[in-house]
Design brief:
Elements lengths: L3 H17 L8 E13 L4 E13 L3 E12 L8 E13 L5 E14 L9 E13 L2 E10 L40 E9 L1
Antiparallel strand pairs: 1-2, 1-8, 2-3, 3-4, 4-5, 5-6, 6-7, 7-8
């Protein structure tokens, strides 16, 4: 019985070391595509994202790529639903050459309104810094999604008649909706789950 206890203790100590000492895919050189599902959470609502990142790993934990996909969520209190296509640059650095490794990432670019009612009407600037952990071919990340609106239909709710006149009080404003009371939108806390091929 005494021989088994040291053997079991050795297994318990060596198993985690062996499991997490194998290579991280961010340390492989070459093309690395991924898919990601995420949520932007703020005071008013949740915005769903479905994204793909296509890029290159340099073999030292650094990844550079491009992101596109679909963002769906309510963009204002007047009703309507924002549907946008983001086009962003993607930079990520994974710290350890292990199966479980912390990382930092930054995505920045534009999101284009494709909603049928033109609810978001315009182009938004997006900045998304994140921190997370890679676990084998999966990653979990959390960060802040900052999104400006360069033209908002929130101020054009006062249409009158068939010819219509619109109040454009909100048009051309640049703000980070979702963090200021009364300005709801696609800014907020971001949580993402990704799979790397």
């Amino acid at each position: 019985m005494k021989v088994r206890i040291p053997g079991v203790l050795a297994l318990l100590v060596l198993m985690p070391v062996t499991l997490f000492s194998q290579n991280n895919s961010s340390y492989d050189t070459g093309y690395h595509p991924s898919i990601e599902a995420g949520l932007v959470l703020n005071r008013e609502h949740a915005v769903a994202t479905a994204l793909t990142s296509q890029g290159y790993c340099f073999g030292n934990g650094l990844y550079l790529g491009g992101v596109t996909g679909l963002v769906i969520g309510a963009a204002g209190t007047a009703g309507g639903r924002a549907q946008m296509i983001p086009v962003m640059a993607d930079v990520k650095y994974s710290f350890l050459d292990r199966k479980a490794s912390p990382f930092v990432g930054l995505r920045t670019g534009a999101a284009f309104d494709i909603s049928s009612d033109g609810f978001a009407s315009g182009v938004a600037f997006v900045l998304r810094p994140v921190i997370g952990v890679d676990i084998r071919r999966f990653s979990i990340s959390a960060g802040v999604n900052l999104q400006t609106l360069t033209n908002s239909s929130q101020g054009t709710a006062g249409l009158s008649g068939a010819g219509g006149t619109a109040s454009s009080a909100g048009a051309g404003r640049v703000f980070f909706p979702g963090f200021t009371p009364g300005d709801d939108g696609n800014s907020g806390l971001y949580i993402g789950f990704a799979y790397y091929f």
